[in-house]
Amino acid sequence: MKKNYYLMSDGMLKRRENTVYFVNKDGKKPIPINKIYSIYAYGSLTFSSQAIHLLAKEGIPVHFFNYYGYYDGSFYPREKLLSGDLIINQAEHYLDHEKRIFIAKKFVEGAAKNMEKVLKYYHLENQISTILPELDGCNIITEVMNVEGRIRADYYRKMNEILPENFNFDKRVKRPPENMINALISFGNSMVYSTVLSEIYNTQLNPTISYLHEPSERRFSLALDLSEIFKPILVDRLIFYLVNKRMLSEDDFEKDLNYCLLNDRGRKIFIKEYDERLKKTIKHRELNRKVSYKRLIRLESYKLIKHLLGSKEYKPFVMWW
Amino acid sequence: MYVIIVYDIKVERVNKVKGFLRKHLYWIQNSVFEGEVTKSELEEIKTGLLDIINKKDDSVIIYRFRTDDAFTRKVLGVEKAPINGIL
Fold first, then answer.
1. How close is the nearest chain A Cα to the Cα of B37, in Å?
2. Is the pTM of the predicted complex or chain greater than 0.80?
3. CA–CA distance, A227 with A189 (Å, rounded to integer)
4. CA B75, B80, B83 angle in degrees (round to 5)?
5. Is B8 annotated as a binding residue?
6. Which of A37-41, A243-247, B79-83 has the lowest mean pLDDT?
7. B24 CB within 8 Å of a chain A CB
8. Structural domains in chain B?
9. Helix A264-279 crosses helix A180-201 at what angle (to 10 degrees)?
10. B23 and A271: CB-CB below 8 Å?
């Protein structure tokens, strides 16, 4: 089983004996190259070009996060899975307005239904199912985005009822997050984003052509699209779990910065549980076998490919538990 | 499946074996490696090892388990190399 490696401390990535070594102040630690799925670098990381050569050869992406835990970018090795056919179809579905808006709506629908499931788990009334049908009337992307925004606003308001009082928050604030929950959401979302990107790397999809988000420059916006569906499942539920079980407390945030940032300890706890969650399996109804959460993301990409190639209409993944 | 590989190799080749196994498995102690592998990866490991070792002098033992749940593992004293994805 390949796994994700999270480099939390400052150090150096070196190539030795045809595998990579992570060298930090505590010493050298060899990492078996065949066991690496992707690397998440949170500390300041130095690496030799030799190490990068090896990682590229093995097709291992490296995701970089800055000092504050924000996503900076990825080392995305040369694509090995290429399909001109699919790229053309991907672009065509973007250019054709009808086709694009269909997929965009599906992403919003998936995200909304998963949010609803999260609230349902805590027996909370919500407006999501009444706002969602408004999607049908939307003809332009900004309207779709608008519906999504309203669903999210309702959802975040409801989150307070699940969280203990000292963790309450008014609204979602980014850049910088103003309080603990916003900090957790931001941090978690950036992790999901890179996880999704790792999965897309392993398919023929081109990560720059997206549907809900505008495929702007310098971003892998398809990863943003697909993340929408998985954020409630992976991040929000994890936050409730960590906070309600008192695994994270105020001490795990930077006090000087108005609690807008996880500190080292908090980050480690979050990442450890996040990784556990990715490995957790559920019994898949259609495939009739056990599938990990990480695999679900890959399956979602495959479903999108099938839709783009016209063999099966895309239906977003919705939790059924 | 989960494998534990222990070996006793002549000095001149021992580093070669260690370097080779490092790519696939976790180093646990001197002459001990372990980790999760697929069937094909195990074959790869076996052929790789056979290329390096001298069948007359060296000895490698591979223990195979269905999963890592099939056994318990207890370390007395120092855990020399904890297997951990968070560094």
1. 7
2. yes
3. 8
4. 85
5. yes
6. B79-83
7. yes
8. 2-66 (3.30.70.240)
9. 40
10. no
